[in-house]
């Protein structure tokens, strides 16, 4: 099985910040908007390099989304930055009407997604954002797994014409995907080859899936591990190809099982190739305060939870 | 010097278009549309510097955004009669497969529309964005917005109003259709707006009134004055005092016709008060 090396823990939000810095240098149409979280979103360098293209909106997210939509008229490519909670639920109608329905080229970049936001607790830990965003017609939804991938995705979405929701997180996590990767929107990445089970993971759960696959391998179970960074449009082909081989699937995400990646995978399978599926996700609940590791453990969002689900799903084959 | 006779003729024809659109599908919003007819006619035919060939990017021309999208009948009529799309297309208002949706949208590709509106309170933010892009592009043209007075009850407006003044967005003229009415009654009874002039001024805007908001001459004089106020570090607000349902006696001074179509008899009465000038579609 392939070996993946953690080259040093880094936060995915820094991948966004560094990607934005690079974009600032190479694309003069890129503008950045922030709702009073410049440091948290790692947008300081862009702000320093291009003060004329950085817009501090203040604590007014609805206005930020509207301004971003308007800025596209005349050729700018706005990247908005705030926490995932304030990037989606708080401004759903603004995104729906002024961005998605109006077909505007806005990149909604959302940090501190999911439960790994940690100690701030449930008011800030959104576990519903993927569902909210994937339901919007025309919206592309991306959830990257590490620093390198977040940086690559940030750069890639500037070249894509249309609204995008890019989701990343707060904590420092393993950085294991190649620094020079070619990020292709909508294209799944196969990380491990196996025959007994398919593990489809997104975001912070991708590294956990790789750890789970190693443990399973020690017990003689081989897993296809697929990194779905783009939840919409979903790479149906990669999912079907793998599940036709393995006959069962575990999906893993830092999100409510209602509305998340797992449900999107279930739709593909139920209509084209029904197969047993288990969900590693939160169980229709809010989060709470704690360290990211404690929370991932308590809410069953780590490698051992994936291993348990794999055993369960294989028994159902 | 504006050709007032031609503008007056257009106003009357637009009123007919509004009434006939909403009557045909027995739905839509005639009251606010009629109240803003003179403003739209003046804006598109005398005030805006605009490219006859519609381009979404709007570089090198003035832009207009309608925030209170429910007054689409007047917007569609004025756009059609300004040449953005065939006047006959007004026949398709609110019908299945039409580009003339109940509320304006870019989704069906109707020329002249740059943003969807209908869910209220979003237009000023969008206009600020377009105005900021004009500044980045070193484009000296102006961004115009129209919003309803009742619409100002939506909180997002005040985020936008604070931002525009705090960031010197001075290539922006926001006109408030001050008709004092909303769906459930007068703004006074539903949720008082207080002293809007004082409010906008307190936020740092340059504010002026057009007291006769249904008088073409007053609108042109006032809006030209508003234009002169741009470029001086402050966003400009025009409080346009209008009468809802203007031009049709039984629709005036009431909220009853906010979102209700006339029946056959009422249509005939309303049209007789506005005899055709340029020909119906």
TrEMBL record, chain A:
Keywords: Thiamine pyrophosphate. Residues 10-175 form the Transketolase-like pyrimidine-binding domain. Coiled coil: none annotated. The keyword GTP-binding does not apply. Its cofactor is thiamine diphosphate. The keyword Ligase does not apply. Belongs to the transketolase family. This is Transketolase family protein. It comes from Aequorivita lipolytica.
From TrEMBL, chain B:
Residues 14-269 form the Transketolase N-terminal domain. Keywords: Thiamine pyrophosphate. Its cofactor is thiamine diphosphate. It comes from the Bacteria. Pfam families: Transketolase_N. The keyword Iron-sulfur does not apply. The keyword Cytoplasm does not apply. Belongs to the transketolase family. This is Transketolase. It comes from Aequorivita lipolytica.
């Amino acid at each position: 099985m392939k070996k993946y090396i953690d080259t040093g823990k880094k936060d995915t939000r820094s991948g966004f910040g560094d990607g934005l810095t690079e974009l600032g240098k190479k694309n003069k149409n890129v503008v950045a908007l922030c709702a009073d979280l410049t440091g948290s979103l790692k947008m300081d360098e862009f702000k320093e390099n291009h003060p004329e293209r950085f817009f501090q909106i203040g604590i007014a997210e609805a206005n930020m989304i509207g301004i971003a939509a308007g800025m596209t008229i005349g050729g700018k490519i706005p990247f908005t930055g705030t926490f995932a909670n304030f990037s989606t639920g708080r401004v759903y109608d603004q995104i729906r009407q002024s961005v998605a329905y109006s077909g505007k080229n806005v990149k909604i970049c959302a940090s501190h997604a999911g439960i790994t936001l940690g100690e701030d607790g449930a008011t800030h830990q959104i576990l519903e954002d993927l569902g909210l965003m994937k339901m919007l017609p025309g919206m592309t939804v991306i959830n990257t797994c590490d620093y390198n991938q977040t940086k690559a995705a940030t750069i890639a979405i500037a070249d894509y014409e249309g609204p995008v929701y890019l989701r990343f997180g707060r904590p420092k996590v393993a950085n294991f995907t190649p620094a020079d990767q070619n990020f292709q929107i909508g294209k799944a990445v196969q990380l491990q080859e196996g025959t007994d089970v398919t593990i489809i993971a997104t975001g912070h759960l991708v590294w956990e899936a790789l750890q789970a696959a190693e443990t399973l391998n020690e017990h003689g179970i081989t897993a296809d591990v697929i990194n779905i960074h783009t939840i919409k449009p979903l790479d149906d082909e990669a999912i079907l190809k793998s599940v036709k081989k393995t006959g069962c699937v575990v999906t893993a995400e830092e999100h409510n099982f209602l509305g998340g990646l797992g449900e999107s995978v279930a739709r593909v399978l139920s209509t084209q190739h029904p197969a047993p599926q288990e969900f590693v996700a939160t169980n229709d609940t809010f989060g709470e305060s704690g360290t990211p590791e404690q929370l991932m453990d308590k809410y069953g969002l780590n490698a051992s939870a994936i291993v348990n689900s794999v055993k369960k799903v294989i028994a159902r084959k | 010097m504006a050709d007032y006779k031609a503008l007056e003729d257009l106003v009357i024809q637009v009123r007919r278009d509004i009434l006939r659109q909403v009557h045909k599908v027995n739905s839509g919003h005639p009251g606010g549309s009629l109240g803003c007819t003179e403003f739209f006619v003046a804006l598109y035919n005398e005030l805006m510097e605009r490219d006859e060939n519609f381009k979404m990017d709007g570089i090198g021309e003035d832009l207009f955004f309608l925030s209170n999208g429910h007054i689409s009948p007047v917007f569609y009529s004025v756009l059609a009669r300004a040449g953005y799309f065939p006047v006959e297309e007004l026949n398709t208002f609110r019908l299945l497969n039409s580009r003339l949706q109940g509320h304006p949208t870019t989704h069906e590709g109707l020329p002249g529309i740059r943003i969807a509106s209908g869910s209220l309170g979003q237009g000023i933010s969008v206009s600020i964005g377009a105005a900021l892009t004009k500044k980045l592009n070193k484009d000296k043209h102006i961004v115009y917005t129209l919003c309803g007075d009742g619409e100002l009850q939506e909180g997002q407006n005040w985020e936008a109003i604070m931002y525009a003044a705090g960031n010197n967005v001075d290539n922006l003229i926001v006109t408030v259709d001050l008709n004092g009415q909303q769906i459930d009654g007068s703004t006074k009874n539903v949720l008082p707006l207080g002293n809007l002039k004082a409010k906008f001024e307190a936020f740092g805007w340059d504010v002026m009134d057009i007291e006769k908001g249904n008088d073409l001459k007053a609108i042109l004089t006032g809006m030209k004055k508003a234009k002169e106020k741009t470029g001086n570090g402050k966003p400009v607000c025009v409080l346009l005092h209008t009468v809802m349902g203007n031009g049709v006696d039984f629709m005036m001074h009431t909220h009853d016709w906010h979102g209700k179509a006339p029946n056959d008899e009422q249509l005939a009465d309303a049209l007789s008060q506005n005899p055709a000038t340029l020909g119906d579609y």
